[in-house]
Write a structure and sequence with these properties.
The complex is a heterodimer of chains A (625) and B (1081).
Chain A lengths: L2 E6 L2 H9 L7 E6 L6 E5 L1 H5 L8 H5 L4 E5 L2 H16 L5 E5 L2 E5 L4 H4 L2 H14 L4 E6 L2 H10 L3 E3 L5 H5 L11 H10 L4 H5 L3 H19 L16 E11 L2 H21 L2 E12 L5 E2 L2 E2 L6 E5 L5 H6 L23 H4 L20 E13 L2 H14 L6 E12 L15 H15 L6 E4 L8 E4 L17 H4 L3 H5 L9 E14 L17 E6 L2 E16 L7 E13 L8 H13 L4 E11 L5 E7 L1
Parallel strand pairs in A: 2-4, 7-8, 13-14
Antiparallel strand pairs in A: 1-6, 1-7, 2-3, 5-6, 9-15, 10-14, 10-15, 11-12, 16-17, 18-19, 18-23, 19-20, 20-21, 21-22, 22-23
Helix pairs in contact in A: 1-4, 12-15, 15-16
Chain B lengths: L3 E4 L12 H10 L4 E7 L5 H11 L2 E9 L5 E6 L2 H16 L10 H6 L4 E4 L6 H25 L4 E6 L4 H17 L3 E4 L10 H11 L4 H4 L14 H7 L4 H13 L22 H17 L4 H16 L3 H16 L5 E3 L6 H5 L28 E6 L2 H14 L4 E9 L2 H11 L4 H10 L12 H7 L7 H13 L3 E13 L10 E3 L6 E6 H6 L4 E7 H17 L13 H8 L12 H10 L4 H10 L2 H5 L3 H8 L13 H4 L9 H12 L3 H10 L6 H17 L4 H14 L6 H20 L1 H10 L8 H10 L3 E3 L11 E5 L2 E5 L10 H13 L5 H7 L5 H9 L5 H7 L14 H4 L4 H12 L16 H7 L19 H12 L7 H4 L1 H6 L2 E2 L12 E12 L8 E7 L2 E7 L1 H6 L1 H6 L2 E11 L2 E11 L10 E3 L1
Parallel strand pairs in B: 1-2, 2-3, 5-6, 6-7, 9-14, 10-13, 15-17, 18-19, 19-24, 21-23
Antiparallel strand pairs in B: 3-4, 4-5, 8-9, 10-11, 11-14, 12-13, 16-17, 19-20, 19-22, 20-21, 22-23
Helix pairs in contact in B: 1-2, 5-6, 11-12, 11-13, 16-17, 16-19, 21-32, 21-33, 22-32, 24-32, 28-29, 32-33, 33-34, 37-40
Classes of the chains: A alpha+beta (625), B alpha/beta (1081).
Amino acid sequence: MPFACIHVLNFILQSALRIEPGLRAQAAGILDGNPPFVTVIARNKKAGSLGLQIGMTKSQAEQIQGLQLRRRSIEHETAAHAALVDLALSFSPRIEETAADTIILDLAGLAQLFGGFEKLAQRLGRRAKKFGLSAQVAVGSNPEAAQLAARGFAGVTVLAADEEMERLGSLPVIALNPSFEIRETLERWGVRTCRALAALPVAQLSERLGQEGVRLQELARGASGRALIPTIAAMEFEEAMELDTAVSELEPLSFLLGRLLDQLCGRLSARALATNEIRLRMELEPGEEEIFGIAGKRQNRVYSQSSTTADSSSRRESGAPRNDNGGDRGDANRQSGTRHPERAGLRPAPTNAEVNRAEPDATVLIYEHVLRLPLAMRDSKALLRLWRLHLEAHPPASPIVKITMTAEPAKVRFAQSGLFVPLSPDPEKLEITMARTGHSVGAANIGSPELLDTHRPLSFRVGRFNPLEASLPANDSGESSVSSGVSLRIAESASLLPATALRVFRPAMPAKVEARDNSRDTTHETMNKVHAPARVYFGGVWGDVMAASGPWRSSGDWWTEDPWNQDEWDLEIEFPVPAAKETNAFSRTAFSHAAQKAESTRARGVYRIVRERASGEWFVRGVYD
Amino acid sequence: MYVELHARSAFSFLEGASLPETLAGRAAEIELPAVALLDRDGLYGAPRFHHAAVKNKIRAHIGVEVTSAGGFRYPLLVKTRAGYQNLCRLITRMKLRAAKNEGCISAKEMAEHAAGLVCLTGGEEGPLAHALGQGGIAGGTECVRELSAIFGRENVYVELQRHLHRDEEARNQAAVEIARKLRLPLLATNGVSHATRIERQVLDVFTSIRNHVALEAAGRLLARNSERQLKPSQRMARLFADLPEAIAHTPELSSRLEFTLEDLGYEFPKYPVPDGETQDSFLCQRTMEGMISRYGANDEKAQRQVERELVLIERLELAGYFLIVWDIVRFCREKNILVQGRGSAANSAVCYSLGITAVDPVGMDLLFERFLSEERHEWPDIDLDLPSGDQRERAIQYVYERYGKLGAAMTANVITYRGRSAAREAGKALSFDSETLDKLTSLVNAWEYKDDDDTLVRHFQDSGFDVGHPRIKKFLELCIRMQDLPRHLGQHSGGMVVCKGQLDSVVPLEPATMPGRVVVQWDKEDCADMGIVKVDLLGLGMMAVLEETIEIIHDHYREDVDLARLPADDALVYETLQRADTVGMFQIESRAQMSCLPRLKPVKFYDIVVQVAIIRPGPIVGKMVHPYLKRRAGREPVEYPHLSLEPVLARTLGVPLFQEQLLRMAMIAAGFSGGEAEELRRAFGFKRSEARMKEIEKKLRAGMIRTGISVESQEMIVKSITSFALYGFPESHAASFALLAYASAYLKCHYLAAFTAAMLNNQPMGFYSPATLVKDAQRHGLRVKPIDVAQSDWKCTLERDRENWAVRLGLRYAKGLREEPAQAIVAERSIRAFASIEELKQRVPSLQKTELITLAEIGAMNFFMRHATQPAIPEANGVADPGAKKRQRFHRRDALWQVERVARPAGPLLDDPQEAPVNEEEISRSLPFVPPLLPPDTSPLSPMTDAERLVADFRGTGMTVGPHPMSYCRSAMTTLGVRRANELEHLPDGIRLRIAGAIIARQRPGTAKGFVFLSVEDETGIANAIISPDVFAENRVTIVSHPFLLIDGRLQHQDNVISVKVDSVEALSMPAAAATSHDFH
C-alpha cells in the first residue's frame, strides 16, 4: 500500500513567509522570546549569508544591515498547518497529521487517478507552492519510509519497493529521530548512516538496544510495518448563517441567534456534551447606520472583544483592577504580585483564549466575541439571554450580514453536589444575574474581593464570585485589612488596636493640605509634627484638623516601573457642613457619616488622608466609622 | 543626644544590608557618638565593627540578638567583660548542639548566663512583641517581669521602635503602659537593618533570597518601608518628641556599657613542660639541641643569633607559642608528614633550630626583626606548609586532641557576594529564568586586568542585552550593591586558633560542616586584629607531590631521597632552569617565570630565591626587574643609593628586591631599630594610612639627615621604600619557596616518572592541566601508558618499560568513574584477572553502565587483545573459542559493543533466582574460573579512526597519551606555513611567522597594561604569544573561547626568551576537544 509524505522544511519561517510572500526575496529571520531576552529561532539562507545565526539576541540581529525580522506567530503556524491539512485532504481522504510540518497521505487507489505516483507527488509539491509553502514530497511503500524520504531528500522522491533500503541508506541515523540515549550509543559505535544501522545483526542489536533499536533498524531499512493513524474529524461545533438582508435590530437578531443556539445545543446534546465557551463571529456591512436604535459608532476595522463575564482566570492573568481609583482602568499591571509577565520581561504571555484576527479582505468588518462560562451549559434559552445582555451593552458597529457561532465542547457538569454542601443559587440563574449586574457596573467590577499579599495599602483584586467553591481563604493581611476588618497580625494583638472600620473612597478624593507649624502644634497624637496637616480641603470645604496621627509610611515595588511610596495620616477634622447644593454626590457621601454626628453647622469626622511622596499630592482615602 | 543601641549588619546573614564598616562610617557622618551592633546569633561582625568604630572615633557597643526557644529574639547588650564571656558561652552552647544556622536557647540557659548583660524588650521580633501577640497587655507585662527577674530590674529596658507602622505603634503604646506600670525605663532604638535608606533594596533582595522566593512573590515578607536606617539624633528626637525620656535613656545606657573588644581577655595556652622546667628553659634546651644538629657545636654566629632571639622571646613571654608550634612540627615528623614553615618565621634562627623552618637565616643573613620585634606588641605569625589532603587533616586533628574542643578551633572564612554569586542571586530575586541567569552570570567575568572599556555594561551590550531595560538596569545596580556583603560563614582552610582555658569565652564557636571540626565566628584577619594568636596549617599541593614522589622513588627505584640533603648545586637542575624547561616545577613554571629564567640564568640556590621573588607585582610595579636583569647580564653598572647600603643591596646588585632589604635600608640609612623598620613596612603596606605614612616618612628623613645622607639619595631611598613596600616579598618566604622549587626541579630532572605520577595524582594543582603535564613528560622521553582496567590502579603508578620506568595512568582519570567501583576493580583483579567484560561486570556489580562505557571508550578494556596472545586463556568447556581470533584485534568499539549487552538488564525472566549467587563477591572468589554466561559475540563495528580515538580520549580522560592533536594535522599546517614550537629557537629575531596549537594558558596580568599572554602547545613544545590590547579587543571572542588558534605574528627572540608578538588570530577547527586551559581571565 503506497503512501506519500509532504514535509515543510523550516516550517516556522515558511509560515511567516506564507503570510508575507514579499519576504521571500529578502534576508529574513524570526524572533521569539520575551523582552529583553528575544532571540533568533529561524532564518533563511540569505539571512545566514549576512551573518544571522540562530540564538542571536534581538539586539545583535538588529545590528545586521538589510535584515527583515519578524516575531514568531503561533497563529501563522496554525494557519499554515491547516493549509497543509487542506492540501492533503484535497488529494486523499485518509491522511495522518504526523507533525505540524509533516502530513502523510494514504495513496491507495489514487495512482490511476493522478497518472502514477510520480505525477501525484509532483502535483502535491506544486499545490503546496500555491498554498505558499515550499514542501519536500516523497512516496514510499509504508508511511515511515515515505516520511523519512520526505524529511531527508529535497524535491520530489518516489521510492521503488526494491530500492528503499538502498536509497534511505545514505540518510544520517539522526533522521530516524532516535532517543537521546540511542543516538549517543550509535554515535559511540560509529554508526552514523541508516545503511550502517541496517547492516547490524538484528538479534545482537536487539540485545543491546532493545525493541526500540529493532524498530529504528526497520525504519532504516525502509521496512516499517506501522499503519497510518488517520486524522479523526475534529470535534467542531459550528453553525453559520448568511443573511440576504442585513439585520440592524436586536429582536430579529435574537431570533436568529436563538435558532443557531438551539441547533448547537441540540448537536451537543446528541453527543452528551455541553459547552463552556461560545464564539460569535459576525460579518458587518460597511458603513455607519443606526443599529439597535442607537447611532452606530464606527468601530475599528476589526471589532474584537472578549467577555470575561464569568471567567475569573483570564482576569487573574491580566491583573487586578487598581481599586483605589475604582474599577478596572486598564492599569491592572501595576498591582504587585500580578504583573503581566510580558511586561515584566520574563515568561511568554499566557495565550489568551480569544482569537482576534484580521480578515484578509479589508472591506469586511468583523464583530467577534467569545462568551466564556464558568461551567458547561447547553440551555439555549439561558445562553440566549446572556448573549442578549452582552449585545445590548456592546452593540456591533453596523448591520450584520453573516453570523457564525462556534461552541467549544465540554463535559456536562455533575447534576448533584455534595450532601452537606449548602444550598446555592442555580448556576445558570446565577450566571445570568452576574451578567446583568456586570452589564450595569462593568464586568471587571463584579466578583469577590481578594486581598493581595503586599504592603501596598488597600490592595485587592476582584476574584470570581462562586459560592460553590470553598469560602475565601482566611487572609492575614495587616494594613489592607484595616478596611475589611480581618487581620491575623492585628488579631494577634487584638487587645491593642481599636476595632474601627474604614469606608474607602474609590477613587480617592484629591485634597489640599496646609501643614501645621511645628511650634504651634498641640495635637497630642502626632509623632512627626513637622508635616502634620493643620487644615484639609476636600469636597469643596476646608476643615480644621483637631487631632492627627501619623504619618504611617509604606513603600515598595521599587524594582518595578510602578513603585509606591506614601504617607498616611489619620485625622480628626472639623468642618462646616456644606449645603447640599454646594457639594457633589461624592462629597455628600464623604460628609454624610460625619454629618450624622454633627450637632450644629459644624461636623467632625476621622479621615484617612494620604500623601504620595513622589508627587507631593494629597488624597482622602476614606472615613472611619 | 541619641545613641543607636540596636543595629544589625550584614553579618546577620541576609537579615542586614550594610557592612559594619558602613554602619560605623555612617554613624560618624551623622554624629552619633556610639552604636551597638546586635547581629543575629553571633558576633561575626564585632571585630570589624570595633575597628571601624575606633577609626571613626565612635564607641562600638557589642551585643547579639539571641534566638529563643519561643521563636523570638532577645536583644542583649554587653555591659562588662563577664557579660561578654557569658554571651560567648551562651551562643557557643546554642550553636554546638544544633545544625548549622539553627539552634535556640531556653529561658533557663538565659538565666544562667545573664550576668553582665543588659536586655532590651526588642522590636517586632523581640520577646515583648511576641508576648503581646500571645497574651495582650497582661502577657506583655508578665514577659517584662520575667526579664527583670532574669537580668535584674536595672538591666532591662523597655524598647520602643518607630518605623511609622500602625501596629508597631499600638505595641509601643502597650509597652509604654507596661514600662510605667513596672517602673522600668523606656529606650528608643531604630532597629537598624541598613546604614542608609537606599540599602533597603538590598535588604529586600536578601529577604527574598532567605525565603527562597522572588521579589514579586515575597509580598509582606519584604520591608514595609525604608525606615530602618541609621537616623541622626535630631530625627530620632522628633520621632520620640512625645516620649523624650526614651531618647534621654540612650546615652545613659551607653555610658553603662563599659565593655569594648579591647578588653577581650585572651591568653595563649602554656605548653606543658616537665617538672622543674619553665617554658623558657624548656624552649632553650630544645633550641640548643636543634642548633647543634643544624649548625654544629662551634658556629658562634649562629649561637649568638639564637641567644639573642631567645632573650627576646623570653622578654615577650612567647616561649609557649614557639613550643606549641614545635610540638606540631614534631608530631608531623614522627608521623612522616612533610612540614615546612613559611613566611617571616624563616627569618628566625630559633625556628630553624627547632626544625620549624628549613632555611638557614644565619647563613643567608636574614633579618630577624622582620619576624619578631619588641616594639610591635604582636604575636608572631608562623605558617606551616603541609601536604594537602589527609596528611594536613591529621595535623589539624592532633591540635584538636591536644588542646580540647573548647581550646582550639579553626578560623572562619566569611564567604561574601562576588560577581557571579551576586549576579545569580540578584537575577533569581528579579525572577529571571535559569537560562537567562546562566547567560547573565556568564557575563560577569573576572579578568585580572580590566581596561577602561571592560565594564559589566559593556559585556552586557556585547552579548546583546538591552542595558536600558529597567530590569537589567536594576539587576546591574543590585549586583554592584551586593558586592562584598557576607553570604555565609565557611571554614578557613588552615588557620587555627588556640587559647588558654576556654576559647568559647573569647569568641563564640560553631560546628563546621566537616564533622568533628569547630570554627570560631571570626575570620583569620579578625582574629589577628583582635590579638588572638593563630597557627596556619596550610595545605600545599607541591608538598603532597614531593612526599608522594619520595614514596614512589622508595618503592620503585629502591632509593631514599631526603629533601634536606639534596645536592645543592646539581648541574642538570640549573641547566634545565636556564632553558626555562620548568613545566610542573613549584613557583617557577608560569609563563612569566619562564620568560625570565633564560635571562636570569640561575647558577646557584640564591638565584632561585631571587627568581621566585622577582616575578611579583612589587618588583614589576617598582620597575626593579629590568635593572636587576641588566646588571646581572653586565649591561648596566651596579650602583647603590648610598654607599652605606652596599652591604644590604650587594647580593641583589644594588636593586632592592626583598622586604628585609627595605627594613635594613631604614635601619642603616635612618638609624631605625628593627621594630621601627618593621613598623615602617607596615605603614606602607596593605592597610595604608596617609597620616601614618607621612609621620613615618618624616621620621625616616630625619634619620637620614642625621646619618648624613644627601638629599638626592634620600629621595631615591624614600621612593624605593614607598613604591615597594606594598607588594614586596619577604626574602625568608622566597627562600622557603625556593627550597621547594629546587626540590621539585631536582625530582623532575632525576626522577621524571615518579614526579609525573605524583603530579598527576595530586591534581588539581599548579599551573598546567594534566594533559599538558603528560605531553611535557612525553617530550622528555617518559612513556605514559593509557588507562587499562587490567593494569591501572586508582592512582597513577609506575611500570617497568624495558630499562626505564613508565607511568601508567590511574583509573582516577576516567571521567565519571567513582572511586569505590574503581577500587573494587583493583581488589578483584588482585585475586584473579578479568577474562571478559562480562566477568568484570559480574565481579564488580557496582560499576554503572556509564562507567563501563567510559572505560570502553577510552580503550581501558582492550585487555582482551593481550589475553588472546597468551595461551593460558581458558577455553570454555574445552571447546575451542570461536571468538579467539577476533579478540586478537579487539578494539574500543568491540568493547563498546560488549558493554551495551553486558550493562543491559536481562529482565526478570532471565534472572534465575536459583542460579543467582547469594553473595556474588564471596562465591566468585571461592569458585574456580567460570566462563562467561554469554559467549562474546563478534562485533560488527569498525574500529575508531585516529580522530575518533582522540576525541574519545579527551572526552573520557581530558588528555591523550597518543600523539598530540596537532600532529594529526601537521601536513595541513605545513601547507599553511605553520612553524612548530621547537623550530622557533632556531629562527632569527624579528621574522614574520605563523604558529598554531592548543591554548593551554591565557593570562592578562594586572601589571601588564592590558597585554594578554597565551601559551600555545603543539606536538613539539610550547610557544608563547603576546597579544597587544588592540589585537585583543578586535579578537576577544576568538581568543577567549577557541581551544585551538592559528596565530600570525613577529618573532621576538632576545636573551634566549622566545615569543611571538601577535598580529592576527584565527580559530582553528580541530577534531578533538582540547584539554582545559589555565585561564586567568
